[in-house]
Amino acid sequence: MPTTVEAIQADIDAAIVPGFRNRLLARGQARAMVWRDGVLPPEAPAFTPQLSNDLLGYGYALLELGLRLRDLGGDQARARSAFEQAATALEAVIARGPRDEGDRSFHFVVAAASYHLARMSARAYSLLTIVFAEENFSRAERAEISTSLSAQSLPSGPTARVLTTLSLPPSKTSFWSTSSSADPRPTTPTSFSTLLISR
Question: Which member of 103, 128, 161, 164 has the greatest number of CB atoms within 10 A?
Answer without folding.
Answer: 128
